[in-house]
Amino acid sequence: MATSGKQRIVVVGGGTGGMSVISALNQWPGREGLDITLIEPSEYHYYQPQWTMVGGGLFPREVTRRPMTDLIPASVNWVNKAVAEFAPGENYVTTVDGDRVDYDYLVVAAGLKLDWDKIEGLPGNLGKHGICSNYSYDSVESTWENIRSLREGTAIFTFPPPPIKCAGAPQKIMYLAEDYFRRHGVRGNIKVAYRCAGDGIFAVKKYADALNAICAARDIDTQFAWKLVAVDAAAREATFEHTKNGERRTERYAMLHVTPPMSAPTFVAQSPLANEAGFVEVDKGTTQHVRYANVFSLGDASSLPTSKTAAAVRAQLPVLVMNLASQMEGRRLTETYDGYSSCPLVTGYGRLILAEFDYDLNPKETFPFDQSKERLSMYLLKKHVLPVIYWRGLIEGKQWPWLMPESHLKAF
Ligand SMILES: Cc1cc2nc3c(=O)[nH]c(=O)nc-3n(C[C@H](O)[C@H](O)[C@H](O)COP(=O)(O)OP(=O)(O)OC[C@H]3O[C@@H](n4cnc5c(N)ncnc54)[C@H](O)[C@@H]3O)c2cc1C
After folding, report:
1. Predicted local confidence at residue 50, as pLDDT
2. Catalytic positions
3. How far apart are the first and last CA of the chain?
4. What is the atom index within ligand 1 of the atom nearest the CA of 48?
5. Which residues contact 208 (CB under 8 A, 6 or more apart)?
6. Greatest Cα pair distance in the chain
7. Which of 22, 99, 401, 408 could be stapled to 95 by a disulfide with Cβ–Cβ 3.0 to 4.6 Å?
8. What's domain 115-262's architecture?
């Protein structure tokens, strides 16, 4: 414990998971007893789920980011640097500058690393020669530029081997593009192709059935077990490798939407906190580290074996915060995460399938209707309501009791 007598909590990463933990902790009844530090190198926080809509021309990219200084509560110490190493045996982390930050409790929410360079020929060509991607703030507008200017040829949308954040995003932008081509009279000249490294279109059968039917009805050429390994930007050719037999083949494209390979951040993967796959090894129910009881993790960098989404973070948040409180007070950890995750599958302008499911891939739907059907109401939810819930509820914590049931708050 710090000399001030306060419990020192260090949060690594100020994305969806880190900022939601910060805003929750900042509103604890026992807040005065905490000394909270956030370590985050970025000047901005990004609402990544909205990049699908930016790529589809529905918002300018600027609405998806806000300066960290507007979001971090004044009472929280912000170390505007990257963490380089963890020393969980001695309860400290080291920043890239070599500074040491000690803690009593640690929360790791460092997200996923994007491995653009694993695709030969891609670095330096993103945003050029018909190559685009919704997976970064810098490239997301190139998606819209390509969609609105394409008149003929093949538009290819790729999906890498896991891990991946928002496994639905690579196909959502495909449906928007296909819809746009159709509405603008060029669909007949454009082949729409989905090249997926996975074995199927979606992990949950109920939604997979609906999506396969949509692809068939809209003449989308879906092929599975093919991963993108190289691009020849000048020639507009993409090379794919079969994930099972290693066969390679090359396809020409007019537009190529790339979802890059991803992995656990290197500084996490090389630390004592990691499991074999490189993720922070936590209990799948409690979110507590399996070897270091004062370490917790949520979101994409955690080993929680569910679909990596902001919606999953929202469900993990109260579990982590309640269990962290119990750990600090020497009580038994009682909260359990059931693997809830959600994917708002935009299937066109004005249409959306809202997939919600748990660890067992059983649907866990919120609304009293069949969410595997395309609906305008769910599209409006994604476009207009979820951003408010995200910024005000999750990141600013304005509706904290709404996010965390009253009964949980009483426990503090
Ligand atoms: C195109 C796209 C569409 C998506 N659509 C949806 C959707 O519709 N619904 C949904 O629920 N989710 C969606 N997601 C996924 C969602 O954005 C992520 O799952 C979520 O942001 C994960 O939160 P996180 O805190 O784990 O990681 P992030 O939000 O990525 O935050 C990680 C943070 O860690 C920081 N960091 C990195 N390295 C270090 C370091 N060395 N030291 C300290 N900090 C570090 C980063 O700067 C970053 O701020 C989408 C994502 C993308 C890219």
Report:
1. 98
2. 166, 343
3. 20
4. 17
5. 200, 201, 202
6. 70
7. 99
8. 3-Layer(bba) Sandwich (3.50)
338 Cα to the center of ligand 1, angstroms: 21
Global pTM?
0.96
Whether a cis peptide bond, with omega within 30° of 0, leads into 163 is yes
Cα separation of 353 and 126, whole Å? 30
Long-range contacts of 116-120 (CB under 8 A, 24+ apart): 116/260, 118/260, 118/261, 119/228, 119/229, 119/230, 119/231, 119/258, 119/260, 119/261, 120/229, 120/230, 120/231, 120/239
Atom of ligand 1 nearest to the CA of 112: 30
Q: Is 55 in the pocket of ligand 1 (CB under 6 A)?
A: no
Question: Is the minimum distance from the CB of 198 to ligand 1 under 6 angstroms?
Answer: no
- Does 56 contact ligand 1 (Cβ within 6 A)? no
Question: What's the 50 CA to ligand 1 centre distance in angstroms?
Answer: 12
What is the CA(45)–ligand 1 centre distance, in A? 9
| Residue 75 in tokens | 């009472």
Closest ligand 1 atom to residue 46 Cα is: 29
Instruction: Return d(Cα 190, Cα 198) in angstroms, integer.
Output: 24
pLDDT tens digits along 122-176:
999 999 999 999 999 999 999 999 999 999 999 999 999 999 999 999 999 999 9
Tell which CATH classification among 3.40.50.880, 3.40.640.10, 3.50.50.60, 3.40.109.10 matches the domain 7-112+264-341+384-409.
3.50.50.60
